[in-house]
């Protein structure tokens, strides 16, 4: 993941933002992949990634915090 963080830094993101983006993206992929391999559903991996990313946005948005 350091390579992704470094690439984001090279694109102009600060260290914290690059790290958060890298870690969040990795987590979204891992959760979606686990659902994909364990699922009997016909959802594609791409659809599950989008679903998990939406869930992450919901819980990290100001409306999602309680």
Overall body shape: globular
- Biggest β-sheet strands, sense, barrel: none
SS element count, helices = 3
Low-pLDDT segments, ≥5 res: none
Number of domains: 1
Helix vs. strand class: mainly alpha
Based on DSSP secondary structure assignment, what is the total number of beta strands? 0
Q: How big is the Rg?
A: 14 Å
Task: Describe it.
This protein has three helices and no strands. It has one domain (2-60). With 66 residues, the protein is mainly alpha-helical. It has helices spanning 2-10, 15-38, 45-60. Helix 1 (2-10) packs across helix 2 (15-38). The model has no long low-confidence stretch (mean pLDDT 92).
Task: Summarize the SSE layout with pairings.
Elements: H1 2-10, H2 15-38, H3 45-60
Helix pairs in contact: 1-2, 2-3
Task: Label this structure with key terms.
66 residues; mainly alpha
In short:
The protein is mostly helical and 66 residues long.
């Amino acid at each position: 993941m350091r390579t992704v963080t470094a690439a984001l830094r090279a694109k102009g993101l600060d260290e914290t933002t690059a790290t958060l983006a890298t870690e969040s993206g990795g987590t979204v992929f891992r959760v979606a992949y686990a659902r994909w391999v364990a699922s009997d559903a016909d959802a594609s991996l791409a659809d599950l990634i989008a679903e998990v990313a939406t869930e992450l946005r919901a819980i990290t948005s100001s409306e999602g915090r309680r």
